[in-house]
C-alpha cells in the first residue's frame, strides 16, 4: 500500500511511542497534551509498565522451571533484557518466547547454570507441543500385524506434537523435581546426560527419557525415512540400541499416528 | 454497503450477562454447566493449531453463545493491517460462529514488533480516515460487522480535532461498524482526563452499541502535584460508581449483552458468576422497562 502523507506522520508518531515503550532511558515521546514533565512521564509509564509486565508474565508462564531455578527477581531482569532485544513479532503470544534458550546461553550472569539453556529449550518444546495440531495415535498392534519382511520398508508418521532434545545435562530429572516436588531433590553423581521425548497424545503434554540412539531414529522418522533406515541410523550411533524397547516406548507415548507401506513418500 | 445483509445472518445475541472465558474455569464450566448467558474469548488465544484451548472451546461453544474479542489486530496501526492476522481472525470466527466480533480503537503493532497493549490514538481526521479504512478491510475480510470498543487511556495528544464520542460516531456512520461500550473504560478515562463520564455517555452513539463491558480498575493515588490516576486492570470487582454508570446506560439503551471482564488475579468461579448475576439483574430490570415503554 502506498504511504499517504497523513499516514506517515502517524507512523512517525507511533514509531517514537514504540521506541520509548521498550527502552527505559528513552525520553517520553513528544506531542503529548501539555502535562507537567513529571506527569507526562508518569502517564507514559502506565503503557510502558503494561507492555513490560504482561510480556514478563508471558515468559514466566512459558518458562516456570527456569524461573524457579534462577529465582523470580533474576528471571524478571533477564526477561526484560530479552524483551527489549526480541519483542514479540506478532500478536499471537503463544508464539512468543522462541530463542530464550539461545539468549540464556549467551547471558553472562547465568553462566554458572550451564544447563539453563537446555531447560529453556525443554520448556519451549513442551509449550509447542501443547498448541500443536491434534492427531490420533495408533497402537503398536498395527506394526505387530505386519509380516517381518515388510517392517524395513514401512514408514511411521510422527504426531505433530512430537519433539525431542538431546542434552549433556540431566535436564528431565531437573525439570521433574522442580515441577513435582515442593522441596527440590538433589541429583546424585549418577545423573548424566539425558535425551527427552515430548509428546501430547491427547490433552496432556508428556515427557520421558529416551534411550541412547532413539534421537537418531526419531530424526530419521521425521525425515520420512523407512523404518529399516531409521533403525540403521540408531544402531550406527548406538550399537546396543534396543529396537523393540524403543518402538514400544514411542507407541505407548502416543508418538506415532500413521503407518504406510511401500515406496510412497 | 453490505453490512445490513450480513447483520441478518448473525445468530441472535443473548440479552444476558456473560463472562470472559479463562482456562482455569474450563473444567467447572463443563462439569457443572452453570447458567451463564454467554462467554467471550480473546481471539488470539485460539490461534494455535490444536491442543486443549480448542478442545475446551469446542465443547463450551456447543452449549453456550460466544463472543470473539480481538486484542491484537492493531486497527489503528499507521503502517497498515497485517493480512496474516486478519486471516487468523477469520479462521477463529468461521470456526466458532460468535454472535459478535469486536476489536479496540487502539494500536499495538509497529514495524515488526507487537507491544501487547492497547496504545492510544490521536483523535484527528487523519486517524479517522486510517481507522475507517482498516475497519472496512476487516469487515470485508470477515464478511460481517465488527464492533469497536472505546479504550481506556492515560494520555492525550496535541492537535486533536474531535472528542472520542464524535470520533466513534463518525467511524460507525462511515463504516457501518457497531460499537462495544466499555463502561469501566469511560469511568477510567473520565477520571484520568477530567471529563464528566455521564456527559460522555449522553454524547455516545448508543444506537450503535451491541455489547457492554464492565471491569474493575486500580486507583493510583496522587499527591499535591499529581492527580489520582485510574488504571484499567481487570483484576477485581466492578467499582460501585461504574455500576451506577451502567444503570445510567441501561436506562437509555435498554437491555444489551454485558460482559464481566476479569483477566488477572482471577477469582473462583462462584465469585465471577455472582458478578455476572449482578449485571444480569440490572439488565433484566431494564428489559422490563423496555416492555413497559413499548406497551
UniProtKB/TrEMBL annotation, chain A:
Protein name: Putative DNA-binding domain-containing protein
Species of the source: Enhydrobacter aerosaccus
InterPro entries: DUF2063 (IPR018640), DUF2063_N_sf (IPR044922)
Domain Putative DNA-binding intervals: 13-104
Domain of life of the organism encoding this protein: Bacteria
From TrEMBL, chain B:
Domain of life assignment: Bacteria
Name of this chain's protein: UPF0276 protein SAMN02745126_06238
NCBIfam families linked: PRK05409.1
Family membership: Belongs to the UPF0276 family.
Record SUPFAM superfamilies: Xylose isomerase-like
InterPro entries: MbnB/TglH/ChrH (IPR007801), Xyl_isomerase-like_sf (IPR036237)
Amino acid at each position: 500500500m502506498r504511504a499517504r502523507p497523513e499516514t506517515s506522520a502517524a507512523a512517525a508518531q507511533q514509531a517514537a511511542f514504540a521506541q520509548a515503550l521498550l527502552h527505559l532511558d528513552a525520553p517520553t515521546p513528544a506531542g503529548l497534551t501539555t502535562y507537567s514533565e513529571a506527569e507526562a512521564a508518569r502517564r507514559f509509564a502506565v503503557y510502558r509498565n503494561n507492555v513490560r509486565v504482561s510480556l514478563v508474565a508471558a515468559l514466566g508462564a512459558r518458562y516456570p522451571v527456569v524461573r524457579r531455578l534462577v529465582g523470580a527477581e533474576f528471571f524478571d531482569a533477564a526477561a526484560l533484557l530479552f524483551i527489549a532485544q526480541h519483542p514479540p513479532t506478532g500478536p499471537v503470544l503463544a508464539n512468543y518466547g522462541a530463542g530464550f534458550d539461545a539468549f540464556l546461553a549467551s547471558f553472562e550472569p547465568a553462566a554458572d547454570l550451564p544447563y539453563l539453556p537446555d531447560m529453556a529449550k525443554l520448556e519451549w518444546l513442551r509449550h509447542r507441543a501443547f498448541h500443536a495440531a491434534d492427531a490420533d495415535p495408533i497402537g503398536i498392534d498395527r506394526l505387530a500385524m505386519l509380516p517381518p519382511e515388510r517392517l524395513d520398508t514401512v514408514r511411521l508418521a510422527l504426531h505433530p506434537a512430537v519433539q525431542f532434545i538431546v542434552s549433556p545435562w540431566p535436564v528431565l530429572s531437573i525439570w521433574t523435581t522442580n515441577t513435582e516436588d515442593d522441596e527440590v531433590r538433589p541429583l546424585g553423581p549418577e545423573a548424566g546426560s539425558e535425551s527427552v521425548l515430548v509428546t501430547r497424545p491427547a490433552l496432556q503434554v508428556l515427557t520421558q527419557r529416551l534411550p541412547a540412539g532413539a534421537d537418531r531414529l526419531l530424526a530419521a522418522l521425521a525425515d520420512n525415512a523407512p523404518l529399516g533406515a531409521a533403525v540403521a541410523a540408531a544402531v550406527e550411533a548406538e550399537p546396543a540400541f534396543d529396537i523393540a524397547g524403543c518402538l514400544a516406548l514411542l507407541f505407548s507415548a502416543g508418538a506415532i499416528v500413521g503407518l504406510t507401506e511401500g515406496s510412497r513418500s | 454497503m453490505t453490512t445490513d445483509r450480513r447483520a441478518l445472518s448473525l445468530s441472535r445475541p443473548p440479552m444476558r450477562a456473560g463472562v470472559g472465558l479463562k482456562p482455569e474455569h474450563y473444567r467447572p464450566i463443563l462439569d457443572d454447566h452453570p447458567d451463564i448467558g454467554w462467554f467471550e474469548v480473546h481471539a488470539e488465544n485460539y490461534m494455535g493449531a490444536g491442543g486443549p484451548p480448542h478442545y475446551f472451546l469446542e465443547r463450551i461453544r456447543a452449549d453456550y453463545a460466544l463472543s470473539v474479542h480481538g486484542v491484537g489486530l492493531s486497527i489503528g496501526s499507521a503502517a497498515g493491517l497485517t493480512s496474516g492476522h486478519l486471516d487468523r481472525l477469520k479462521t477463529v470466527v468461521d470456526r466458532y460462529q460468535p454472535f459478535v466480533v469486536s476489536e479496540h480503537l487502539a494500536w499495538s503493532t509497529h514495524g515488526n514488533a507487537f507491544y501487547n497493549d492497547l496504545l492510544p490514538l490521536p483523535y484527528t481526521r487523519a486517524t479517522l480516515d486510517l481507522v475507517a479504512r482498516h475497519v472496512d478491510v476487516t469487515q470485508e475480510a470477515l464478511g460481517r460487522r465488527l464492533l469497536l470498543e472505546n479504550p481506556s487511556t492515560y494520555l492525550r495528544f496535541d492537535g486533536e480535532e474531535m472528542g472520542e464520542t464524535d470520533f466513534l460516531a463518525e467511524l460507525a456512520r462511515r463504516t457501518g461498524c457497531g460499537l462495544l461500550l466499555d463502561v469501566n473504560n469511560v469511568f477510567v478515562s473520565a477520571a484520568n482526563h477530567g471529563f464528566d463520564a455521564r456527559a460522555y455517555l449522553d454524547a455516545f452513539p448508543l444506537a450503535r452499541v451491541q455489547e457492554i463491558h464492565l471491569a474493575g480498575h486500580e486507583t493510583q493515588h496522587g499527591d499535591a502535584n499529581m492527580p489520582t490516576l485510574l488504571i484499567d486492570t481487570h483484576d477485581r470487582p466492578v467499582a460501585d460508581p461504574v455500576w451506577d454508570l451502567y444503570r445510567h446506560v441501561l436506562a437509555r439503551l435498554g437491555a444489551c449483552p454485558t460482559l464481566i471482564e476479569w483477566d488477572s488475579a482471577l477469582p473462583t468461579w462462584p465469585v465471577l458468576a455472582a458478578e455476572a448475576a449482578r449485571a444480569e439483574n440490572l439488565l433484566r430490570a431494564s428489559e422490563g422497562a423496555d416492555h413497559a415503554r413499548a406497551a
